[in-house]
């Protein structure tokens, strides 16, 4: 039975969505034109580099220059600055902040189920829900161009993704609070949907990807990343991508830094639930190394830490990753009284827990002093726990269409947990106006991305930026 207060809340949200639709019609999102005051994209990247490890910045540049798609992946700050000048409905949610299609993937839930969800939250921040949608759809357009898809194929992928978001938001608008909270994309349940949308050969590829994800564990990571040295397990150097602490510091400083990191791990346990803190206390520090990860994250300080439970056959690999200020807070134009004062690691973790249907049991945060004496914020999670992602470059149109729809549904579910899903659904309506507008925006933004990519290539040729070839 619906109570009077519930009916009033739904009515208020419905009216809010209608008012937003009148103030900023869905068609207003169509297209993207940069004015003369647009920030220099290379300048934005240079500004980011100031706070990063200097010798790793050229690697970031090299990875971004591999293709227009990898440039897009690393240019979240550039797009954040651009999005600040685009229309929005005024309806806010907790944003991923970097919702491109490679930041969706598979991982294990605490119940040991393989789930599909957003999996990168370095830039999470409150903001207009449209910003995540535009980041996702623009990434699809850029990726589809890199894969050689035609205009009509790209348009169909765009429309399918946005319509999936729209339909899912309408579905969530009619659901009870707990049902929204418990909704998730269980991979075993997704197989039936994929079988209907993919040809038989593509179904087999999907099955292989699911099996590969389940094989990614701390035990497998230990086999790949370590070796026995004088009878003790140590992380193997693969410079500059993996550099053990023993290779970064003189012998006299290693013990002090090791003590700092073990102290960080002890303190970080206070950010976990009590039962998970008890589990963490059963593991002991063994070794650690600096590791280069991703595209946009390259140059931020990231460590991998090997720990043992009952013995050497019971490993746990943790990733300790620096959390800097969100590009949405820095470039996106939004302001928060607390955004510059909170622990940035806590910002990441809070946003991740709010948006994900299930999060890593070891997800937490802490602040620590680095080798240079500067205190920085970090968030911590498992390095490998059934993690898997799609190989976008290998996708054909029908596969990318299905994947885009899945990402659209997943993003709507994440937004529905924190935002006013009734108001957003009312704003979207049930027609295709918003979908066509976003497809137009994504096509225009992909043009701009290609121009920015060429600008970065020119900056490399002129010597303005240093570039190290991608050695992955």
Keywords:
472 residues, alpha+beta, six-stranded antiparallel beta sheet, 19 helices, 13 strands, 51% helix, globular
Write a structural description.
With 472 residues, the protein is of the alpha+beta class. The protein has helices at residues 4-23, 41-49, 57-64, 68-74, 76-83, 129-146, 151-173, 177-182, 187-197, 200-214, 218-225, 245-248, 251-268, 274-280, 327-331, 344-355, 397-418, 421-428, 433-462; strands at residues 92-95, 104-108, 114-118, 125-128, 185-186, 226-229, 232-235, 242-244, 284-291, 302-308, 315-322, 364-369, 375-382. The protein has a 6-stranded antiparallel sheet with strand order 8-9-10-11-13-12, sandwiched between helices. It has a 3-stranded antiparallel sheet with strand order 2-3-5. The protein has a two-stranded antiparallel ribbon with strand order 1-4. The mean pLDDT is 91.
């Amino acid at each position: 039975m619906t109570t009077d207060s519930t009916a009033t809340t739904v009515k208020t949200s419905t009216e809010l969505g209608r008012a937003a639709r009148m103030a900023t019609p869905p068609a207003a999102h169509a297209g993207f034109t940069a004015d003369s005051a647009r920030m220099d994209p290379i300048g934005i990247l240079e500004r980011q580099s100031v706070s990063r490890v200097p010798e790793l910045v050229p690697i970031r540049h090299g990875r971004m220059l591999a293709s227009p798609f990898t440039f897009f992946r690393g240019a979240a700050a550039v797009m954040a600055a651009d999005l600040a000048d685009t229309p929005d409905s005024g309806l806010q949610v907790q944003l991923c902040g970097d919702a491109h299609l490679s930041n969706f993937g598979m991982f294990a839930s605490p119940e040991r189920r393989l789930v599909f969800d957003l999996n990168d939250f370095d830039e999470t921040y409150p903001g207009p829900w449209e910003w995540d949608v535009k980041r996702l759809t623009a990434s699809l357009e850029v990726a589809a161009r890199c894969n050689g898809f035609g205009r009509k194929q790209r348009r169909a992928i765009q429309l399918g993704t946005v319509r999936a978001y729209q339909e899912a938001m309408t579905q969530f608008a009619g659901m009870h609070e707990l049902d929204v909270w418990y909704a998730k994309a269980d991979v075993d349940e997704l197989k039936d949907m994929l079988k209907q949308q993919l040809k038989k050969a593509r179904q087999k590829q999907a099955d292989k990807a699911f099996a590969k994800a389940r094989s990614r564990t701390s035990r497998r990571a230990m086999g790949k990343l370590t070796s026995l040295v004088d009878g003790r397990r140590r992380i193997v150097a693969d410079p500059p991508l993996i550099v053990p602490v023993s290779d970064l510091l003189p012998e006299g400083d290693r013990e002090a830094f090791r003590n700092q990191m073990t102290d960080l791990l002890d303190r970080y346990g206070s950010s976990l639930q009590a039962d998970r803190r008890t589990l963490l206390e059963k593991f002991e520090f063994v070794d650690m190394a600096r590791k280069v990860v991703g595209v946009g994250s390259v140059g931020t300080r990231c460590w991998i830490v090997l720990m043992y439970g009952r013995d050497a056959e019971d490993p746990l690999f943790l990733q300790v990753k620096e959390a800097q200020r969100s590009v949405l807070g820095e470039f996106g134009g939004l302001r928060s009284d607390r955004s510059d004062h909170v622990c940035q690691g806590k910002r990441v973790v809070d946003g991740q827990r709010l948006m994900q249907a299930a999060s890593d049991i070891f997800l937490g945060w802490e602040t620590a002093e680095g080798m240079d004496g500067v205190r920085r914020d970090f968030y911590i999670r498992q390095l490998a726990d059934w993690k898997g992602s799609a190989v976008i470059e290998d996708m054909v149109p029908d596969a990318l269409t299905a994947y885009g729809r899945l990402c659209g549904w997943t993003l709507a579910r994440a937004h529905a947990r924190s935002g006013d899903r009734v108001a957003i659904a009312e704003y979207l309506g049930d027609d295709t106006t918003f979908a066509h507008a976003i497809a137009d925006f994504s096509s225009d933004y992909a043009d701009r991305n290609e121009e920015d990519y060429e600008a970065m290539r020119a900056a490399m040729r002129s010597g303005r930026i240093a570039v190290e070839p991608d050695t992955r």
